[in-house]
Design brief:
Structural class: alpha+beta
Oligomer: single chain
CATH class of the largest domain: Mainly Beta
Order of helices and strands: HHHEEEEEEEEE
Largest sheet: 4 strands, antiparallel
Helix content: 25-40%
Radius of gyration: 22 Å
Number of helices: 3
Distance between the termini: 62 Å
Length: 177
């Protein structure tokens, strides 16, 4: 377990390192691949140790196998798509500004317990078809704010579940004032 904890710390050092040029990216990717191989080897050792208990405690082994889940974080999954349309014409809005914030009720951030903290995702502008998409978002509740000149700013919320793409459609109304 200590080895797996150290691997997690090593991963975070690599993961948070700016990628820079192609040579740097290749080095970071090689380091990550080595960390994954080391983690797989450690999990295999744990699996083998648990399996030695099968004769004496089969219920424990069955429960271990049932609960042991490894998530492939390297897989890029589309987590979220948002479409922004004009409420009257249903035409898409290119270049509408979308701000998204993850609402954290009580979560560990950098090893510290936090309550009510929000983390912002960098603002995005919609493409010519009025959409944005984001890959690999953490499970949880998110808040959004959409603005476009001459229209009423829209706010709302949505929820992301692991492995499920969330799609949100927002219709902006003209600001008549």
């Amino acid at each position: 377990m200590d080895a797996l904890k150290q691997l997690t710390l090593d991963f975070m050092k690599i993961y948070t390192t700016p990628t820079g040029n192609k040579k740097n990216k290749a080095k970071l990717t090689a380091n990550l691949n080595q960390l994954f191989k080391t983690a797989d080897a450690g999990l295999t050792k744990i699996d083998n140790q648990v399996n030695t208990l099968f004769d004496t405690d089969p219920d424990f082994c069955d429960e271990y196998q049932r609960r042991r889940v490894v998530v492939n974080l390297a897989a890029r999954l589309r987590a979220f798509q948002m479409w922004i349309w004009d409420d009257e014409t249903s035409q898409p809005f290119g270049k509408a500004v979308v701000k998204i914030t993850k609402k954290d009720d009580s979560e560990l951030i950098n090893g510290l317990q936090s309550t009510g903290v929000s983390r912002k995702i960098p603002a995005k502008k919609t493409g010519v078809r009025g959409g944005i998409s984001i890959n690999n978002m953490a499970t949880g509740e998110y808040l959004y704010e959409i603005s476009f000149g001459g229209y009423i700013t829209q706010t709302g919320s949505f929820f992301i579940n692991d492995g499920v793409m969330t799609e949100v459609i927002v219709r902006l109304k003209r600001n008549i004032e």
